[in-house]
Write a structure and sequence with these properties.
Layout (H helix, E strand, L loop, with lengths): L1 H7 L3 H20 L3 H12 L10 H18 L3 H6 L1 H26 L5 H11 L5 H9 L4 H31 L4 H33 L2 H20 L5 H14 L6 H27 L2 H6 L6 H32 L9 H9 L5 H8 L7 H33 L4 H33 L5 H24 L12 H25 L5 H19 L1
Pfam family, one: Na_H_Exchanger
Membrane topology: Multi-pass membrane protein
Function: Na(+)/H(+) antiporter that extrudes sodium in exchange for external protons.
Amino acid sequence: MEGALVGFGMGPQLLLLAGGAVAVAAFARRRGWPAPLLLVAAGLLVSPMVPAVPLDPELVLYVFLPPLLYSAALDSSYLRLRDVRKSVGLLSVGLVLFTTVVVGLLVHLLLPTLPLALAFALGAIVAPPDAVAAVAVGRRLGLPRRPLTILVGESLFNDATALTLYRVAIGAATGGAISLWHGLGEFLLAAVGGAAIGLALAFGCAWVLERTRDSLVDNTVMLLVPFAAYLGAESVHASGVISVVIVGLYLGNRMHLRGFGTRLVSDAVWRVTVFFLETVVFALIGLQLVPVIEGIAGYRPWQVAGYAAAVLGVTIAVRFVWMFAYSYLIQMIRGGEARPTGQQTAILSWAGMRGVVSLAAAFAVPETVPERDRAMLLFLTFTTVIGTLLIQGTTFPALIRRLRVSSEQERYEDRLAEAAAQQAALEAGLAELDRLIAEQGHEPDEIQKQVIDQLREKSWRRSLTAWERLGGGTGPGGAETPSTLYRRLRRRMLQAEREVFVRMRDERRLDDEVLREVMAQLDFEEAILDR
């Protein structure tokens, strides 16, 4: 790994890459644009003007991929994924196999001198979509929950299928013939072994977290978990991807058992980690332009352009064919899920942007493969990744708007369910309060009555807030509801209180340590108001 980091370019080069990528991502977020697409475009523009920044496959697969997968799994809903498990299986396994075969046969037809095993390796490389950009756009534009869940589930598991097929194909290309049964056995070992290691690590990690009860220790352990899961599975030739996803889904489903401090810190830690890693990864994709083009200097430009266009077109078309067949297959499966609507099928078909895992796999093709063949695989992978990101990524928002797919009804139902749950929780909380008062055996004194009244008022306010959100925070005639007015005024009060504390610190009447403590209290209160 040390060699990977050195090859990546430690020092000023790494710092400039990270700083520039964060600046571009910040600009994109400020403008409301998809940051991944702008980062790729920026990388393409500056690639000819900066020193080469090679994409080391070990760095991507062992450093970047595990935490990104783990965070996505941690934030996913196990219950929703279980509801769409047949759809996820058809896409993360069936579609990857279908794409591998079709693209492999096409490449072998276009380049007869390229061994069939390497052609299938390219098919496996470009088969798995990366749903980061699609999910980000879909959430921002209000895509319904079911297609979003399918996209997330597909992206969690399709890398495992693709990387296993890739290993089998590369093994056949470099070490001789491999039978179908051998390939199937390797696939089963990867899937079952990865799941077993993931479950074992999940149970062990849950046991540790139940005994630490320290938010900093808990989150430090969870930072190490994805790397342990990935490395542990890969060391026995199982699927590191499946291992990481299993751990993330298990711990995410049990996050309610952790303390509030662990949950608050975890949310902040993973938001920052994912933002930074995704920012650097998408910038790296664009920066591979010059190294990739230099590798195909021996080919005619029009010739390689034709190959690239054919592979890109077929990669996109294959997903459309499979998706519309899938909408019928899903009904044929016994106990099948509801058939997706035509609009949802079209959106899922167009959400096939490829990402950095494909590029990392292409860069990882062994040096024993002839240099000319290796360069062609890398070029076709790069053009497919860039083509899907820039063509599908830039038009994906327009497609969602054009089809008028919205989650407005889901959001209303969510608010209604939340309000009902808050009401039930309020009644349970007040009943517990009454029970505790009765246990005292005597009437509360004046001070205790004031505390009890405050507790009742706070409970009622929280329940009222949930019901008021159904009206968007406004009452008749557009007037502010009581809770909206409360939050607005309390935020202004908190700002005034902060200014007093800071002024007293500047006047040396308050120590910095005390300032940090009181600021944390005010920040937590404002975070509650923001929720």
